[in-house]
Specification:
With 1114 residues, this protein is an alpha/beta fold. It has 41 helices and 24 strands. The chain has six domains: 1-132, no CATH class; 155-293, no CATH class; 311-551, Rossmann fold (3-Layer(aba) Sandwich), CATH 3.40.50; 568-715, phosphoenolpyruvate carboxylase, domain 3 (Up-down Bundle), CATH 1.20.1320; 736-876, P-loop containing nucleotide triphosphate hydrolases (Rossmann fold), CATH 3.40.50.300; 937-1106, Beta Complex (Metal Binding Protein, Guanine Nucleotide Exchange Factor, Chain A).
């Protein structure tokens, strides 16, 4: 194998399209190509018919064979000078690079041609070889080497280099100056003017295009070798971030920033990186962090001293300097007066008892909590003991909302602050300790309770009152339950501190997983009370009339509506889907028979009936996930592209169910426009063409159907108008669900012009489209027609293009609804739990249903007297689930009443017995666990990578929350490396920051995760083999590794839970071994916090209807 072959093989192994890379060196090819070589290359590589046909496609205006045309151009160019000969050489070189990619000899000869620059231009030779390119990962990101083989060619041809030169010069860096000068010199040659004849003008244009292209190529190939990062200060007109330490890869972000500043180059950014905005934001944040970084900060970290754990609250006054405003600044709190039923709700809590307060949505639980907290803090001040309260809320939006409300009533007397995880971690514990009341999410609280850093550490002893908002979540693996478990662990250790008072707030305790068993419902409620250490349940019993004066339950109504009997529109889409599914079957069966994808079985390739929407989404979504691993790229593309089309058609049907067909057509048109750009692969283009042909035929047919339906509607309108407007209003739509929606809204607003209505829907897309449609219905809903008084509110999302809303947009919608600017608000689950939306007269659940608890919360949004709560149910399943939820609600209320009918001592005794029962169950489980562990005692294994590297010994594996398994060997950092995750994610109790890999072979070992503010290496169960190393080892020293960690714990070796000692040792070892990696992980963690912050609104940890599903698309 020659050196050239080795180089080509190395580039291919890196995913580089060698011919595209060579094309960046057109200038060198032109310089060194002789006339004899021109004709030899032309005859050898362009004359063959197969290549000639491909080249003709790129020059469609040329009628003769390309090889002959090039020869004529060469002869013609002789009359116009050497520059024109260079154009001919460049054309030939580009033809060979772009169309001879299946000819290895062409690659070798073109490389040798360009490599003649070795002595004349060492920098160009260095750029050609790429061997010493340290920022190779960014080079790969720039050109998407594996995903789009022609991307490099496209970028170089599209780029307008002249607009970037002044931007790079403003960077004041000598590294960029060299490449900019070279590129600019070529660009100046492209500005030739003055040709007189038509033939001269053609050659002049060709020459200018050549040098402009060479200029772009010179810039693109040279930038990756520029690593100096001195940039302009923040705030200057350049928009660039200020100076920080030089880093590899900054050239990539400087290039992106430069492109962003001019309209000629800005469209290129999305082609290079669809997420360029977020990437630039992350990079700028990274550079600013670097710029302000304190030298040797890792040596100044203070760790928690386990011998100094407090047993009573630390005094907030000792941390008062950390409050945001001076202590002498006084705020006058708003007065409040509890209603009689609210006074009943606070009795037990204000007497210092642990209790669960169960009151309907809209009854003012925040004011109730305010009074409980104020009473608690006031009593502490009067009696001379230190108090601090924490309010735990399940979602991030509630942190700000509840903090603001508490400030409204407590400011001036007490200090209130909120913590959602988006704020700077530095000194956060001291900020909490400065509070009289802090509001936070439970996961932030858990992280701080477990932190090994003094600046982050909190203790349960620091709090005298813990209020759980939406406390029905305190079950199973929810963070609320984890907090209460930590309190139980302290009791088990004979903790000498005083446990905080516990108060839970909820609108619905739920009935558990039971159906109609009152005894099981009672057991569920007693378990919830035991989990929260509640002594009693506080609900309104004696002031029910007063409660009804303020919170009137809306009238519940279920209206079943039918789909159109003959729906030709939907039937046509289903027919198209069936054709696609049939076309996939042969290939899917072949995959299953040959086991090309291990996870796929015969049942997995059977398509369910599309009418069963949940099953269809799950089955096809799972199929799509597994097919990602199919090795054959052509078959993989065919199947995945087919599934994408099925997904679009599936959602088009769902839209058609609830909205006019025009919305379904618009949706399909938008989605299918994404497939209009051809690929450079003929097979891929054929796959796309076949699918698009089906769509084109379907679209034509759907438009005919829609036109016929519009004509039918117009005829119906004329007939009904003749009978009178009243009959005409609500009978035009073919879909009964829309007609019924129009009538309900019309009747409500005709009766009360200033009414408010909430419409609950299932998806963000439906919310947007329905809100838009209601303002387009002229005759049926004139009060909304072109009025801009219908809005929508959906969950927050990092991407507005995905249909999400920012917190500010949500706030504007809530305020508009409250003030009356918005009369109808179409919402998703964001309005279900806790988020404060003004009172309304009408709740419509638009073919949307949840659990009995969600039903109670949604209905509770209708807070006016004589309000309505209506379910429009499109199918029997929805209707039956609603009736089921009503029965469960009635059972829950009856169960609460029965429990409260008991005297206080009896109820308390029942809760204590349940607590003892749960403790015994935990002890039984613990004994079983200890028995199992005894059998595996003394067994030790080395966990080895496939290359033989020892990851760690089994006695250094630890479990985190019984679900995450990490390596706690301080030396493991030296045996491993990492690759930063492009989109770090935040899970329930940890953050994924980076891919963890073997330093020797690069094998994927797992993830670098952040837990308890410390970075730990999580071990992937498939990353290792087990080699037994204890004294009982046999000659069969290697064991088959089970597929799950729980099986390893059951059969191979014991895994201990992680301890503070483990966490501390791993923290210190990372700082000592690789402090730069620690900083990178910290930046990744902060990115994940920001991405996750707004997403918490959609999370519902407990609801069994929200199990993980593989939805197809939206």
């Amino acid at each position: 194998m020659t050196d050239v072959d080795k180089w080509v093989g190395w580039l291919h192994s890196k995913g580089i399209q060698v011919e595209s890379h060579l094309r960046l060196f057109t200038a060198e090819a032109v310089r060194y190509m002789t006339e004899a070589e021109f004709h030899r290359f032309r005859l050898k590589y362009i004359t063959p018919q197969s290549v000639g046909e491909r080249t003709r496609a790129s020059w469609p205006t040329v009628e003769q064979p390309i090889s002959e045309w090039l020869a004529q151009c060469w002869d013609s160019a002789a009359a116009y000078g050497e520059q024109c000969r260079r154009v001919s050489k460049a054309r030939l070189f580009n033809f060979i690079c772009m169309h001879c990619r299946d000819c290895p000899d062409a690659i070798v000869e073109m490389f040798r041609l360009v490599a003649r620059c070795k002595d004349d231009d060492p920098q160009a030779y260095k750029e050609l070889l790429l061997v010493d390119l340290k920022s190779f990962d960014f080079y790969a990101r720039m050109f998407d080497l594996k995903g789009n083989p022609m991307k490099m060619d496209a970028i170089s041809k599209i780029l307008e280099p002249q607009v970037l030169f002044p931007v790079f010069r403003k960077l004041n860096t000598h590294e960029y100056e060299s490449v900019v000068q070279r590129a600019e010199a070529f660009y100046n040659l492209s500005q030739t003017r003055g040709a007189k004849t038509e033939e001269q003008q053609r050659w002049e244009i060709a020459t200018n295009e050549l040098f402009c292209d060479i200029s772009a190529c010179t810039l693109l190939r040279g930038l990756p070798f520029c690593t100096d990062t001195l940039v302009a200060p923040v705030g200057k007109s350049s928009g660039l971030v200020r100076a920080s330490a030089p880093e590899l890869g900054d050239w990539y972000y400087h290039f992106m920033e430069a492109c962003e500043m001019d309209s000629k180059t800005r469209p290129l950014l999305r082609y290079i990186d669809p997420n360029f905005e977020s990437d630039l934001v992350c990079w700028r944040a990274h550079k600013e962090v670097e710029a302000i970084r304190v030298p040797n900060w890792e040596q100044n970290v203070a760790f928690v001293n386990p011998n100094e754990e407090p047993t009573e609250p630390r005094d907030p006054l000792k941390y008062s300097e950390l409050r945001k405003f001076p202590g002498d600044l006084y705020f006058e709190p708003d007065p409040y007066q509890l209603r009689p039923y609210q006074n009943e709700l606070v009795v037990h809590a204000n007497n210092g008892k642990n209790t669960i307060i169960c009151a309907p949505t809209g009854s003012g639980k925040t004011i109730v909590a305010t009074d409980i907290i104020r009473t608690h803090l006031s009593r502490a001040k009067q009696e001379g003991w230190v108090a601090r309260c924490v309010m735990l809320v399940p979602t991030v939006p509630l942190v700000d909302q509840q903090s603001c409300e508490f400030v409204q009533y407590l400011a001036g007397s007490y200090w209130v602050d909120g913590f959602s995880g988006c704020e700077n971690c530095t000194g956060r514990a001291q900020r909490v300790l400065a509070c009289d009341l802090c509001v936070m999410t439970p996961q932030i609280f858990i992280n701080m309770l477990n932190s090994v850093l003094e600046s982050e550490r909190l203790y349960l002893a620091d709090f005298t009152l813990v209020v759980f908002d939406e406390c029905h979540h305190c079950d199973k693996g929810h963070p609320y339950k984890m907090i209460m478990d930590q309190l139980a662990d302290l009791d088990a250790k004979n903790w000498t501190g005083k446990a905080p008072q516990i108060v839970g707030l909820t609108a619905s305790l739920g009935v558990g997983d039971t159906s109609w068993d009152m005894a099981a419902c009672r057991r569920h409620m007693l378990s919830l009370c035991a989990n929260l250490r509640a002594e009693t349940i506080s609900s309104v019993r004696h002031q029910l009339d007063n409660l009804k004066d303020y919170v009137t339950p809306p009238v519940d109504r279920v209206e079943k509506v039918s789909r159109p009997h003959n729906n030709e529109f939907v039937d046509s889409i289903k027919s198209c889907m069936a054709e696609i599914q049939r076309s996939m079957q042969e290939k899917l069966q072949n995959i299953v028979e040959k086991r090309l994808v291990a996870a796929l079985g015969k049942d997995d390739i059977v398509f369910p009936n599309v009418d069963d929407q949940t099953q269809y989404q799950n089955r096809v979504g799972l199929l799509k996930k597994h097919l990602q691993h199919l090795p054959d790229p052509v078959t993989r593309l065919f199947l995945l592209r087919s599934i994408n089309h099925l997904s679009h058609y599936f959602h088009a049907i769902a839209i058609s169910d609830l909205l006019p067909n025009s919305f379904s057509l618009d949706y399909l048109k938008t989605k299918m426009s994404e497939y209009m750009n051809p690929s450079d692969n003929a097979q891929f283009n054929q796959i796309n063409a076949d699918l698009m042909l089906r769509y084109t035929e379907l679209e034509r047919h759907l438009k005919q159907i829609q036109l016929a339906e519009l004509e039918e509607q117009e005829q119906k309108k004329r007939t009904l108008l003749a009978k009178g407007k009243g009959e005409y209003q609500f009978n035009l739509e073919k879909k009964e669900i829309l007609n019924r929606l129009y009538r309900i809204l019309h009747d409500q607003f005709a009766k009360e012009a200033d009414a408010r209505a909430l419409i609950f829907v299932s998806t963000r897309a439906c919310a947007q489209r329905l809100a838009k449609h209601l303002m387009e219905v002229k005759h049926e809903l004139p009060m909304f027609f072109k009025q801009k008084n219908v809005g929508y509110m959906v969950s927050s999302n990092q991407s507005g293009t995905m249909g999400g809303q920012s917190s500010d947009e949500q706030r504007r919608m809530r305020e508009g609804f409250k003030s009356g600017l918005i009369k109808v608000l179409v919402v998703t689950s964001v309005a279900e739990e806790g988020v404060n939306i003004a009172a309304c007269n009408l709740i419509i659940r638009y073919n949307n249903i949840g659990s009995e608890r969600q039903m109670i919360q949604r209905r509770g949004r209708a807070r006016h007297k004589h309000s309505l709560s209506i379910l429009l149910a499109l199918d029997t399943g929805i209707e039956q689930r609603e009736f089921s939820n009503m029965r469960k609600e009635a059972m829950m209320m009856r169960c609460i009443e029965d429990m409260q009918e008991q005297d206080e001592q009896t109820l308390r005794r029942s809760i204590e017995e349940k607590a003892i029962e749960l403790a015994e169950l935990r002890n039984d489980e613990k004994m079983k666990e200890e028995s199992k562990r005894a059998q595996l005692m003394g067994r030790r294994f080395d966990l080895r990578c496939a290359c033989g590297t020892v990851i760690c010994c089994s006695d250094r594996v630890r479990s985190v929350m019984d679900t995450l398994f990490v390596c706690c060997d301080p030396k493991v950092w030296k045996r491993s490396k990492h690759t930063l995750t492009r989109a770090p994610t935040k899970e329930k109790f940890f953050t994924n920051c980076a891919r963890w890999e073997c330093a020797n072979c690069g094998e994927h070992w797992g993830q670098i995760v952040k837990f308890s503010n410390v970075f730990l290496p999580e071990i992937r169960v498939r990353a290792f083999v087990l080699e037994r190393v204890d004294e009982q080892r046999s000659h069969f020293d290697r064991e088959v590794v089970p597929k799950k960690w729980k099986d390893i714990e059951q059969n191979n070796f014991n895994v201990d839970s992680i301890t503070m000692t483990d966490i501390r040792s791993m923290y210190q070892s990372l700082l000592e071994t690789n402090p730069e990696a620690h900083l990178e992980y910290e930046k990744q963690s902060r990115q994940a916090d920001q991405r996750m912050a707004d997403k918490f609104a959609e999370k519902d940890w407990r609801n069994k209807d929200r199990k993980e599903r593989l939805f197809l698309e939206e």
